[in-house]
Amino acid sequence: MVTSPVRVFPASLRASPLPTLHAVSASAEPAPRRERVTGEPRTVHRLPGHRTQWEIDEQTTLGAAYVRSLMRSQLRAGLAAFALLALPVVTLPLFFAALRNATVVWAVLGFCCYPLLVLLARWYIRRAERNERDFARLVRGADHDGPP
Amino acid sequence: MNEAYTISAVSAVVLASVLIGGFGLRISRTTSDFYVASRTVGPSLNASAISGEYLSAASFLGVAGLLLVHGPDMLWYPVGYTAGYLVLLIFVAAPLRRSGAYTLPDFAEGRLESARVRRVVSMLVVGTGWLYLVPQLQGAGLTLGTLTGSPRWLGAVLVSCVVVVAVAAGGMRSITFVQAFQYWLKLTALLVPAVFVLLVWHHDGGAPPVFPADPGAAPTAAGAGQPLATSRADHPLYATYGLIVATFLGTMGLPHVVVRFYTSPDGRAARRTTVVVLALVGLFYLLPPLYGWLGRLYAPELTGAGDADSAVLLLPGRAVGGVGGDLLGALVAGGAFAAFLSTASGLTMAVAGVLSQDVLPARGVRHLRVATVPAMGVPLGGALLMSGMPVADVVGMAFAVSASAFCPLLVLGIWWRRLTPPGALAGLLLGGGLALLAVALTVAGAGPVRTGWLHTLLAWPAVWSVPVGFLAMVLVSLATPGSIPPHTSATMTRLHLPESLGARQTAAAAAGGAPQGPGARQARAGRGREPQ
């Protein structure tokens, strides 16, 4: 957790040759509140892992955005699997009605479709769990050498 | 001779169920134990239990009967019952488990933060549960009547009493063990006779049975008791699509199916359990079509309304004959009773849970025991009053109501942030209410017309009522953007975040004492009672 306040100062101030560490006001004037600056925020583009977890826990806008991205990827996986299921199911009754061959109907609906349903379920599960793993890695920041 | 075998087989199944249930009674101590087995049931045991609970009279007797009468088009029933689990897995399984609610009303209240939505969902759950219980009891009466010549009400009363005692005594934990046992019993009870009948068929020359080329022309003896046969004959393609929509989308909302998902330890386990269920249910459904197919050969006269459902029971005796046939018939009867008992106990559990929490004032476990009596009494009355509807068709109607009311609520509630309580109410009342009305008119036979398009539309409502439910929910929600529940974002996080990441949040909430939903509240209440 970042405890001391970090402020990004204007470029002119940051460019000063003086070290910014311990730039505390020496005068007793109370009017302009000066802040202690502890260093350059060099890693501002990459948040530490626990920070992301905190964002989610505390329901911040950023946390909501993370959850939204997870929901979107999971919904995409679900819709893909549903489309793979719905497409043959919608066309098959028409196909059977046109074919008028009872043996084919017995074979397809009585036997062949069940292994396919299980395979589709396994494909979906693998995708959904991969989405969750990717998300967990993103939140925990486990791969520090990967792209942010 | 035949009757003695059947009676002893049925008695053995009933006794085994009660004994295994009693074994669970010693484990279940708290409210949490009682309702959802303290969420400690492993995936394989849970998958067997879910499959055991799901495979009802419609699967065991009804599918084969419909196939025998109407031919291979009816294979969409078992396919739909199975594929419904795939749709459930895709859209609902993991988030529903993560919602932390016990029942559909709990989910509705937790997600939409509205007591009114909860009340409407409760009423629809009770209605769907009762509609689904009626054919189970009818099937029990039919089985006992066919095999022993007893009056039709005896089987229904027997199953009701056993279920009320089992549920009131042990709750979900005992039901989990009982139902896991009953899945394997049902599979064996169909598999072993099927092998023998196939051997006989092979010995007889192996000629394939002849089905009428036009399935609509088949049910000559349909009569007044089978209103669905005429509508199916009139518009077979529409009926097929109605069946597909109802079963594919209805499974996720069935009260006894939903309650089972809370017994998984986490969302990931809920998902994996569903795949095992899909495999187990699919394995079972390879068998009933075989009975329908061979039934056409060995019992072709069973094309009447109530008689066709007994094809599975009579086939072993007809094909094998002698003492062997009697023994196989007794085995099938035992399996059929396992089917009635398991589905009926799961449904009674779910309906009684809703009744005790939302209709009667809640007072913990003892009150749930009281609620099992009306939960079972009403459908028993229904089963005694009405008869002659094919078992699988009545179950199909329960699926249609579930698909029209609960599928939009679950899918939109889980995936759409802009769902509002007024929108959910509109969808539930329009989709679910209209489907329930259409089904009631069809069952009562009091529809404005007994034939033609209107009758077909009422008998197979899912094709129009599911889109109506979805549309009403979406449109009214969009029109009332001001009433989006305040904690929607937090709820969505809870539904979709894997438990490994959300653990901190729940721990913090539990420490702070802030209830996250009715389910969480009850779970803590249950744990608080543990020392007793």
Automatic annotation (TrEMBL), chain A:
Ranges annotated as spanning the membrane: 77-98, 104-125
Domain of life: Bacteria
Keywords associated with the record: Membrane, Transmembrane, Transmembrane helix
Protein name per the record: Uncharacterized protein
Automatic annotation (TrEMBL), chain B:
A GO molecular function held by the record: symporter activity
Presence of keyword Metal-binding: no
Signal sequence annotation: none
Membrane topology, as annotated: Multi-pass membrane protein
GO BP: monoatomic ion transport; plasma membrane acetate transport
Family matches, as Pfam families: SSF
Alphabetized UniProt keyword annotations: Cell membrane, Ion transport, Membrane, Sodium, Symport, Transmembrane, Transmembrane helix, Transport
GO cellular component, one term: plasma membrane
Residue intervals passing through the bilayer: 6-25, 45-69, 75-96, 117-133, 153-171, 183-202, 238-262, 274-294, 327-355, 367-388, 394-416, 423-446, 458-479
Family per record: Belongs to the sodium:solute symporter (SSF) (TC 2.A.21) family.
Name the UniProt record assigns to this protein: Cation acetate symporter
Organism: Streptomyces sulfonofaciens
